[in-house]
Amino acid sequence: MAMTRWWRLLSLVVLVSCVWTCDPASAQQRRDPGSGCQPEHLQESSVEATLRLQQHKESHPWLVSDMTVRVPRLWPLAKQLTFSVQSPQYRMAMRCLLLGDETPGKRNEWHPRDPVVTATDSSVEVHYVAYSWITSDKPFPVGPWEIVPAGRTWMVYLWPRTLQTVRWKRIEADLDGLAFSDLVERASSSTENKLVWTNRLPQDVQVEIDPPRLRQLTATLTQSLWPTAGVASWWVCASLLIAVAALRARRTGTAGAHGTTPPPPVGDVAWQPAADGPDTDTEHSTSFTRTLLEWAVLSAAVALALLLLTQRGVKPLWSAVLGILAGLALVLVARPWVLGAPPAAPGAGPDEPDPSHDSRRRQALAVTAATCAVAGIGLLVIVAHAAFGLPWNLAPLTTTASGRTGLVLVGLATVWLWLAAMLAWAWRFAHEGGLLRKHWTKQWDEVPAQCVAVVGCLLAAVAAILLGLAWHASSKQWGRVNWLAEHYDPVGYNKYQSKLLENFFFSDLKWVFAYSWVLTGIALLALLRYRNRPHRTQGRRSERFSRGPSKLDLLLTVSLFAFFVGVRAAKFANAGALYGVWLVLNIVAVYAVLRVGRDWSVLGRMGDSFYAKRLGTEPHREELVDKARHYLYFTHQKRLLDQGHANGMTCEGLEKELEDLRSWLVTACGGNEPPEQISVLDIALAWGPYGRWWSNAVRAARLAFRFGLPATGLLLYYQAKAPYWQAQILFSPVGIPEFVADLILYQMAWAAAGFTLGALWRLLPGRRSQARAWFLTAAYSVPVVLAAALIHFFDTDPRQLLLYAALLLCVLTLTSIWMDLATFRKDLQYESSRFSLLLSVYQLRGLSVQIAWVLVQAAAIVGIWVHLAH
Predict the structure, then answer these.
(1) 658 close to 634: Cβ distance less than 8 angstroms
(2) Residue 653 CA to chain centroid, in angstroms?
(3) Is pLDDT of 216 > 90?
(4) How far are the Cα atoms of 635, 814, 843 from residue 831, in angstroms, in the given order?
(5) 480-494, 540-554, 855-869: lowest mean pLDDT where?
(6) Nearest to residue 45, comparing CAs of 125, 119, 101, 121?
(7) How many other C-beta atoms are found inside a 10 Å radius of the C-beta of residue 750?
(8) 51 pLDDT above the threshold of 90
(9) Which among 304, 368, 358, 307 is positioned nearest to 334, based on CA atoms?
(10) Which residues sit opposite 57 in a β-bridge?
(11) What is the spatial distance between Cα 760 and Cα 697, in angstroms, rounded to a whole number?
């Protein structure tokens, strides 16, 4: 009997529980406490609030809310504020205090940490800090405040969801020196920067701010078509540059093939037909230039198409279809199986046969089969969307497991195809330009199916990692926005993740193509390598070296500098709409520095007669370096003699030796007396460590890449330290990939700067090698002045621009010093260390000057860094 009563009682409890949990009104109340917050018990609360607006020297105006609330113990939920932050009771109490009946997830404000809760016998104190950035003309709620852009002004309201009828103890608004008006005129005190209210209701706080007009212009331009036009102009300029280079290279090759005299010299070596004859060389040259023209047209067309697809109203279905078809077309048009490497590519033997037609057919079959299979998977999901539980437009409100699988397959297929397209074009450029290792091309010729399988798996892994990072970032974003939700809302989370998967294939597609401009740099470098490849018919000691790049090679080199180094200034100045202008401006700046400094360079002041008699071939270079060694020895002995250490040498003998070295210079100048301050050592250092300017450029690029590693670390650390960029890195779907891309691009920038320095080594002015680094940095500084003017004009952050310029100068200075060491690299075996070799080359006074200059640069970098830290 007792057992029967227990079962009846248990059944009653279960029935009541089921009715309570299934009742929609009850469930809604648990998700949205509303009147359950019991705000009438908060009348005895004490509140202090501060709003700080930081807009001076900031890329985006920054709003920081600092609020402290002391609630009485009489409030029924006060005790729950002291619970664990993961408990539903804590979230409910904190939500009631901060949001009231507002639905969690509507706010996009940021909070650096959870509210700090301190309990006493009579009250519970909650200290809550929140912040946000003004990036558009929409209202921005942050803490109890709300900032509403209204035309030419910003309206600031104290608009809490709770505690509206409580007199707040102290309210403070720090407006960073902006002009303001107290509309209600209830402020207790007012200064130039700050308004203070004491014992006032929230509705008494209404402030009108007059922001700088340029701030408004920046926000307006960000949301207008100007950034889109700037990106379009960037792609158009890049495509035109590639097209001009390809057409000029084709014209030069055609002139040589028809027996006319092309512009000598091409690269380092006077033009000569390749061993296989002019027809074969012209065929490869035509193939390469055709590839460049194809990429110039395709990249511009695809970029403009993507810009159109980013406009509102484009359905995900069409974005997916066009993305898959465009990726497939880009891979097939790239034709990575086409043989385009020059017959005299480095490492090729004179009788080495070309890959057979069968090998190329197998390569084409492997690539086509793989890309078509991946595209077919994506298109199959689109066609058979009903089988995956997806609507025809691929924009479901909620998804099942099969629906999410379908969206993931479409996204992975699209991203895989675009990654494959970028890789295919990079391979084609590097293959035809002779940049690839012989082992790689041999594997591609022998086992193409295995190569495609391995590369396909790697690309699939990269696509999966991108999806995983996007999913992780979106999960963090969901948790950040809904951190005060009392209960996990599976329906809302499903909608949120469905939207993420719906946009994944397009957002990451845009990110992949946004960095495809790197292919333009690879194409320029490949064309440079192709034009300056060593010919088999020429011996190492008989080839004739030039003083620098030809006109076309100079354009390609300067363009590399503008692409990878110069345009950074536009990014730091937030001038994305001017990317196209910036590209042209950087090219013009380097040409202007060369035009001014060419006649003042060491070799330019020596004249053409000296170059013809004393430079130009490997024996001449070896003789020059040997004379420079003698000069170092005799000057060292003369200094010892002046200090009283004769070592068997006489002053007359040393002066006679130095006069002979001077005569060796004078007799080769054709009657023109060279400047007295130029010695044979200056000429050897000005010529560089190698005979070919290409070799000098490659050596300098490798050195700058190594010296740029700590510089990249500093820049990325500063970028990651800023709160705005922290938010972008951690909570954006492509934040971490963007961070990794910045790391790679910084290193490519240092390498491109070093390559340019080495290529223009003999054309830049200055007796000391460090002066060449200064002049090249000055060429970069011309656009930097414009960037600094824009930064000052818009009152944004100039510090990253200054840090980048200082690091660039330091990297190039160290590169120039190590280039001088490489000139006397054979002497390193006779020295105890590199420092002793430096001491020998620069001698005591010169070395002290170099060290002092490097220390000055380091001090400047440290000073900028300290300023950045504060």
Answers:
(1) yes
(2) 59
(3) no
(4) 18, 20, 14
(5) 855-869
(6) 125
(7) 26
(8) yes
(9) 368
(10) none
(11) 8
